[in-house]
Write a structure and sequence with these properties.
By secondary structure, the protein is α/β, with parallel strands linked by helices. It is built from eleven helices and 16 strands. Bound molecules: threonylcarbamoyladenylate and magnesium ion (MG). Magnesium ion binds next to loops.
């Protein structure tokens, strides 16, 4: 007989700006005692445990169903905590931390031997960031330890940008969930590897390549194609797994505005005709062109302007979660510009789509 242990999941709703100290204290004592707690950050919700406690860290992998070779990001609240984790904090790291911490930037650095393999997936490097969220920072400080945390979703699912998303995936699988309101960035942090000859973006995110280059000069961007060509293992193990995927199949449509709309409506009619439930995620600029009379879909959402990618980043995962709730089979999404924050948006969309893109 298999016994599945169900957790009693505690839930606290707090102000993102002035969280109730009693709630933070309770959540922190669970983390300090080896439990797992989901908490808000500015990027997405994280599922945290005491970094230096391998048993606690193991619970994260169980709760998420995460492959054990996919390492976690260590979250700190103060710069001095970095030294418990890394062997070296080079000049570039110091400059970037001064400019972007607290914020959506994760630095990969050589790790100290005290960091358990469970956190780093056996690598000799560790990823670290200081989140820009009062609740996350208070929780870390009160716990008295740095907090290792991946996104608080089931492995492979879209990341959670609200506590409701976390509840849906992890209720009964974790010790607690702190609801601190919706995430303001909405996409995960940029992961920057500083251990190679040249800084390398392993995952585009909330801090753009352009912003990094203004501080430290040229930065490379990991592209899976190049890596495969060079027959190298991906340096960020997480990037090899299917990610960010809603239940439905995602199809991206790229091209001139008017033609994109008509092609999406054509595809929507085709899939609808086959009895599939269809969603259209579009921009503010095209929203009014998808009138119900001429286009057949089950769910239409304007995820933001082509000219304000901050909004698109903030709304994207929420829209994918809604597609799951509405049991959508086919999700047709307009392509957004891949510059600035758009690089991160398109990276996630391409992963969700398994690179199915129609260019018209
Ligand atoms: O914004 C974020 O980064 C959120 C919040 C909670 O902080 N966290 C997050 O964690 O997105 P996760 O586990 O979903 O993604 C972490 C990424 C993975 O792609 C992982 O492979 C990579 O960071 N990573 C972690 N440690 C690494 C290391 N030592 N070397 C290379 N990549 C690493
Ligand atoms: Mg994740």
């Amino acid at each position: 007989m298999v016994i599945i242990r169900r957790f009693r999941t505690r839930y606290w709703k707090v102000s993102p700006f002035a969280p109730d100290p009693a709630a933070i204290r309770q959540a922190a004592s669970i983390v300090a005692g080896g439990g797992v707690v989901a908490f808000p950050t500015e990027t997405v919700y994280g599922l945290g445990a005491d970094t230096l406690n391998p048993l606690a860290v193991g619970k994260i992998f169980t709760a998420k169903g995460r492959p054990v070779d996919n390492p976690l990001i260590v979250h700190v609240a103060e710069l001095r905590q970095v030294w418990d984790i890394v062997l070296d904090f080079p000049a570039a790291a110091r400059l970037l931390a001064a400019n972007f911490w607290p914020g959506p930037l994760t630095l990969v650095l050589p790790k100290r031997s005290t960091v358990p393999d469970a956190v780093t997936g056996g690598l000799d490097t560790v990823a670290v960031r200081m989140p820009r969220h009062r609740v996350a920072l208070d929780l870390i400080k009160k716990s008295g330890c740095s907090i290792a945390a991946p996104s608080a979703n089931l492995s492979g699912k879209p990341s959670p940008t609200t506590a409701r998303h976390v509840l849906r995936d992890l209720y009964g699988r974790v010790d607690g969930i702190i609801d601190g309101g919706p995430a303001v960035v909405g996409l995960e942090s940029t992961v920057l590897d500083l251990t190679g000859p040249k800084p390398l973006i392993l995952r585009p995110g909330g801090v753009t390549r352009e912003q990094l280059e203004r501080e430290i000069g040229p930065v490379d961007v990991e592209t899976q194609g190049e890596r495969e060509g060079a027959k190298l293992a991906p340096r960020s193990p997480g990037m090899k797994y299917r990610h960010y995927s809603p239940e439905g199949n995602v199809i991206l449509i790229h091209g001139e505005r008017g033609r994109v709309v008509s092609r999406i409506c054509e595809l929507a009619a085709e899939w609808n005709g086959r009895g599939q439930r269809v969603a259209v995620l579009c921009s503010r600029e095209t929203y009014s062109l998808y009138s119900k009379g001429t286009c057949s879909y089950d769910y239409l959402e304007n995820i933001g302007s082509q000219y304000n990618l901050d909004d698109v980043a903030r709304n994207l995962y929420g829209a994918l979660h809604t597609c799951d709730q509405k049991e959508i089979d086919i999700i047709l999404i307009e392509v957004f510009p891949a510059t600035g924050l758009g690089a991160a948006i398109m990276n996630r969309l391409q992963k969700a789509a398994g690179s199915i893109m129609e260019i018209i």
